[in-house]
Amino acid sequence: MNYKRIISVLLILMLTLSMVACNNDVANNQADETAETTESTDTQYTEQVELEEKVVIYSTHGEAMLELVADEFTKATGVEVEFINLKGELADRVRAEKENPQSDVMFGGSSAVFMELQEEDLFEAYAPSWNDKVDELFKDKDNFWIGTIQTPVMICYNTDVITEEDAPKDWADLTNPALEGQLVFRNALSSSARATYSSLLQQFEANDDLENGWAYLSALDGNTKQYYSSGSMMFQAIGRQEAGVTFATLNSIVDNKVNNNIPLEIVNAESGSPIITDGIAMIKNAKNPNAAKAFIDFAGSAEMQAMLANEFNRMPTNKDAFASSPEWMAEIVIAPMNVDWAALAITSSEWMQQWDTEVKDANKDAE
To answer: What is the DSSP string of 277-319?
Structure first.
């Protein structure tokens, strides 16, 4: 028997097994490091600095959505969230507290409102961890605010009331005499309605034709049956077939189509649809600055935006969130209306006051 050969073979086998074990250890170590890196990325807002015990949020978002974000943030960080839903009073409240801020973060409201308040030096610049995942259209170039939700405002109609042939194809069609009494809209207390009326008027201004812009809004009012302060009341009227056409935020249209079984058809307007950016910003001289930055990191993360997309049909601005969002959000192609939101931040309030006092028929306001 050749013992030397047997010993050589055994030594080779032992060496091979040793190398395999080493390679496995390296692979496992790399996997562990990758997991640690991923975990660190997901929880960087808790590891970078020591966070304060609470963060105060002023918002325009609904209670259910705020509670979800707040609860998830507290689970992730241990930081208590105090939020106040201020709706149309949000901007005025932030202004009033400029010298002694009582909030840390402004969460919600259109980009035009954020631009207004930015000019008044009410925000602290901060670029969140997801900043590079957001298109330039949805954020401030100097990082004073950034969008967490993109909100297209689109025309829709009840297919049991309006046929496809008679349905409007664009915003100009809403003044067609054939649609008289078939339109119901939100009043200008709604931020989406303010943005839409102002955006439509701006299209005429861009062509040095503002006079015809006001004539268009007057004709639109002539076809309007009712104005509502509540979106739910407006859609109830559409569902009861009291009118056939409206415009609303895309998420509201989808909600009412899916959850309330209203046979709604969405119109991708030929001239484009206004796309409102719901933003978030850190209040200047916030009392809880570290927790404020952590909340902004969290609220706009792909995971949180995808959660809001699935729970509330809110379309993300973070590109990474679409992979886990409802399929229709990634599939729908919306033609954006050419809107100068910075200019609207200056003119919108004056225009809407004129619309409210000189154009809108106050007798059409719903109680």
So the answer is: EEEEEEETT-SSHHHHHHHHHHHTSHHHHHHHHHHH-PEESSG
CATH fold label, 48-150+276-331:
D-Maltodextrin-Binding Protein; domain 2 (3.40.190)
Least confident of 115-119, 159-163, 174-178: 115-119
Residue with tokens 């209670």: 63
- Output the six-digit token pair for 246: 């409206």
Rounded to a whole number of angstroms, the distance between the first and last alpha carbons of the chain is 105
In CATH terms, are 48-150+276-331 and 152-275+336-364 the same topology? yes
Percent of the chain with pLDDT over 90: 75
The CATH code for residues 152-275+336-364 is 3.40.190.10
pLDDT mean across residues, the chain: 88
8 Å CB contact between 197 and 344: no
Strand pairing class (264-267; 54-59): unpaired
